[in-house]
Structures are given as structure tokens and as C-alpha cells.
Design a protein that fits this description.
By secondary structure, this protein is an alpha+beta fold. The longest helix has 34 residues. Helix 2 packs antiparallel against helix 3 and helix 6 packs across helix 7. It has seven helices and twelve strands. The structure holds dinuclear copper ion (CUA). The site of dinuclear copper ion has 9 residues, from loops.
């Protein structure tokens, strides 16, 4: 009776274990999660996968061998019912101890060769006219991109566009805490450290949208610090650049700077001018995301909400409840508590969505 209960309990524990493992592993599967380093879309990501795959299989062989031998020995030499003997007592075995020290040492030495080679290879700075230069500034909690090449020269946020088959050299900076820039399908992670600019090269070998996110805990909304990279053919990319370079009409700039900001103080953190002729620090304010063509982006608020009228209205009405910030961060205020009505929030949202978009008709709400 007792035996049966024990067996039942053991069976149940095993079943739950297998089910839990399956559910957890299911989270890693699928090619549509857009953050899959097993699904590389560029040279850097391919090099990392090429390193990972053989090491993974070496680890599988070693892991299965060790666990298999442990189970075999435990079963083969277990004490059987009624058996009284004690095992022979030994202390140390020189041959065994020397060999299980030397074998892992050799395995690690062999693995170190391609690892170090890949690290140096990925750290190389690309040179030439082909290279696209973008300064990435990590903020709490969004990403700011400054396109610094003479042919570009503008500022945007969260959504980065790049041309396919051209190396993109990112310079990573932070003015607050440590973040980590990570787009798994394009490259590995690189920490974004205050006072210590790092560089990272990304490149896409096909057009597409690649999602990424901050990979270093950086405060309450760390998980809400996402980003997207849109890789485009050279022609599409050139068109996007021209759109970004096109300033908003003067009356729109005035409406934002005078009317909207006059009432709510938006320009303390945001700007609807994105040209960087005088250097990134002199354009608008970079406290919050640059809003020049915010209506062209697919998402907002650190790429967490879709660029649609409803979520944008809720955001402007009461941002702190849409994205936790805590008390340590100077953050978009709760305008509903400052007397803003939902109607007013909706009007500002409509301005940002429809009046900053290159093609307002792409938003059904703007028709
Ligand atoms: Cu930024 Cu985590």
C-alpha cells in the first residue's frame, strides 16, 4: 500500500516536471518570436550561431554521458534487499584524478580557440564608405538614435532603420545607468555604460523587422525598454532617410511648440525638430523621445504600445500608469491629474499620430 502511494507520488512529480519543462521550452520555439538567436539574419549573428552550435552538441554529449553513467552506476551497484555487505573503501585513484583534470582542461583549451577568434572578429570596427554610423543613446526607458553620417544627420527613437548588406556601426552611450543593446537576430549583446562609449556592429542580410530589447536590468521599466530594427533595401532605406530629413511644416512645429507645449510643457523633454547639423546635443531636448516623425513609427513608449490613437491617448492622459517609472526617474507626468481632459489628450494624440506621419492615411484613425 505504502509502496503504491510512493510510486504514485513519484509518477506525479515526474509528470509535473516533464509538463513544466515542456511549457518552458515551448517559449523558446517558433520562428515568429522575432527574438531568436537561433535564427540569425546577419553576419555577426551567424558567427555567434556557428560558435554556439558545435559547443552545444559537445555539451550534449558530455551531459548525456555524465548523467547516463551516474544513473547506470546508481542502479548497477545499489544495495539490494537483504544484502549486508559494505563496499570496498578506497581513497583516491591517481590515474582517474589526473585524467578527469586533464580531459576537461584539453576540451576547454580547444573550445577557447574559436571563441577567442570570434570575439576578436566581432570586435573589429568596419571601415569604408559603406559603413552606416548611428549613435545609440540609452535612456530610462527608450532608445535614441542619432544618424551621424553627412548624408543623414537626424535624430529618432526606438525604431532604427538600416539598409541591408551594409555594416552599421553603433556607438553606444548612456547618461544614466547601465543598459544592454540586444537584437538577437542581428548580433550579440553589448553593454551600454555611462562614461564609456562601446561600439557594436550590426548588419542584416535580408529585409525585415528584427525586435530587440534592453538586456541589462536598468530600473522598474527595464522590461519595457524594447526596440525594433527595420532592415530595408537600399532604395527603401533612402526613401525613409528622406522622410526623416523632411522637416514638419512650420505651422505644425508652431502648433506643437506654442499651442500644445504652451499649455502642457511638452518641449521641456520633447522636440519636433530632428536635424543634427550642430551635433546631437544641440537639437531639441533628448530627455524624451524625439517626436518629429513619431507617427511613422510602429510603436511608442519604448516600442511597447502600437502606434494607434487609443493607446496614444491613454499614454498622454496618464503615462505613469501605462509604464511604471518609480520615484527615482524624472518621468512624463500624469496629465490627467494636472487638469487634462481625455478629449484634450485625444487631440494631442491625433496631432502626434496624424500630423507627424509622412503618410497619415496609413493610420485608419487619421482618415
Ligand atoms: Cu535599459 Cu534594461
Amino acid at each position: 500500500m505504502r509502496d503504491r502511494m510512493q510510486r504514485l507520488r513519484r509518477g506525479a512529480v515526474t509528470g509535473v516536471g516533464i509538463a513544466a519543462t515542456t511549457i518552458v521550452l515551448a517559449g523558446c520555439s517558433g520562428n515568429d518570436n522575432k527574438q531568436n538567436s537561433l535564427h540569425p539574419a546577419g553576419p555577426a549573428a551567424h558567427k555567434i550561431l556557428n560558435l554556439f552550435s558545435p559547443f552545444f552538441w559537445v555539451a550534449v554529449v558530455i551531459g548525456v554521458g555524465v548523467v547516463g553513467m551516474t544513473i547506470f552506476v546508481a542502479l548497477r551497484f545499489r544495495v539490494r534487499p537483504g544484502e549486508e555487505r559494505s563496499p570496498v573503501q578506497t581513497h583516491g585513484n591517481t590515474v582517474l584524478e589526473v585524467s578527469w583534470t586533464i580531459i576537461p582542461f584539453l576540451i576547454l583549451m580547444v573550445m577557447a580557440v574559436p571563441t577567442v577568434a570570434t570575439i576578436f572578429n566581432l570586435a573589429k570596427t568596419p571601415k569604408g564608405n559603406d559603413v552606416v554610423h548611428i549613435e545609440v543613446a540609452a535612456r530610462q526607458w527608450f532608445w535614441q538614435y542619432t544618424y551621424t553620417d553627412p548624408s543623414t544627420g537626424f535624430l529618432t527613437a526606438n525604431e532604427m532603420h538600416i539598409p541591408v548588406d551594409r555594416p552599421v556601426l553603433l556607438t553606444l552611450t548612456s547618461n544614466n545607468v547601465i543598459h544592454s543593446f540586444w537584437v538577437p537576430e542581428l548580433a550579440g549583446k553589448k553593454d551600454v555604460v555611462p562614461g564609456h562609449p562601446n561600439t557594436l556592429t550590426i548588419e542584416a542580410d535580408r529585409p525585415g523587422t528584427f525586435l530587440g530589447q534592453c538586456a541589462e536590468y536598468c530600473g522598474l521599466s527595464h522590461a519595457n525598454m524594447r526596440l525594433r530594427v527595420v532592415a530595408q533595401t537600399q532604395a527603401d532605406y533612402d526613401q525613409w532617410v528622406r522622410q526623416q530629413q523632411t522637416p514638419l511644416p512650420a505651422d505644425k512645429v508652431q502648433e506643437f511648440d506654442k499651442t500644445i507645449s504652451g499649455e502642457w510643457g511638452c518641449t521641456a523633454c520633447h522636440s519636433v525638430t530632428n536635424r543634427v547639423a550642430k551635433g546631437p546635443d544641440q537639437v531639441g531636448a533628448s530627455v524624451g523621445p524625439n517626436l518629429t516623425h513619431v507617427g511613422d513609427r510602429a510603436a511608442f513608449a519604448g516600442d511597447i504600445y502600437p502606434m494607434q490613437l487609443d493607446p496614444l491617448t491613454k499614454w498622454i492622459y496618464d503615462a505613469p500608469h501605462q509604464k511604471p517609472a518609480g520615484k527615482l526617474v524624472n518621468w512624463m507626468p500624469n496629465f490627467s491629474s494636472k487638469g487634462m481632459s481625455e478629449k484634450q489628450a485625444g487631440d494631442i494624440a491625433r496631432f502626434l499620430l496624424c500630423d507627424t506621419a509622412t503618410n497619415p492615411a496609413s493610420h485608419p484613425e487619421c482618415k
